[in-house]
Specification:
2 copies of one chain form a homodimer.
Chain A: E1 2-12, H1 19-30, E2 36-51, H2 54-69, E3 75-82
Antiparallel strand pairs in A: 1-2, 1-3
Chain lengths: 83, 83
Amino acid sequence: MREFKVKVEVKLKPVVLDPQGKTVLTALHNLGYDKVEDARVGKLIELKITDSDASNVKERVDDMCKKLLSNPVIEDFVVKIEE
Amino acid sequence: MREFKVKVEVKLKPVVLDPQGKTVLTALHNLGYDKVEDARVGKLIELKITDSDASNVKERVDDMCKKLLSNPVIEDFVVKIEE
């Protein structure tokens, strides 16, 4: 059994409005950072998984993302596996 | 002027309790993913910045993180710059 560290990045799809990002952008402008042109806010989920096989892990985490970690209607996700 | 895509990962410090992560972990276990041993939830902020110099960008984003994007008391951040 090996331990895998998995990073899941969940972002809103590019066509979906991001009010939280918009608020961050406005706040940055108010602080004087006027070279920032866009800001979008997503989620970063880190998992620790014990399994025997890396390909298993990838498949399962994809599954978790579809079922629980992301909303596939409005969000995209990227899974990165480190050991 | 070049356009930089900057990714900021904001995570709770390891010593800080993460109730949101704990909830995700319980939900994953309830769905049958019992090989997941830990889950932590952070933020992923993507910025688009126009500037002439990459080293400027890194410095400014570090600054933004300290002032607005993270809470340095309980959170760590990592800045990654892509072009």
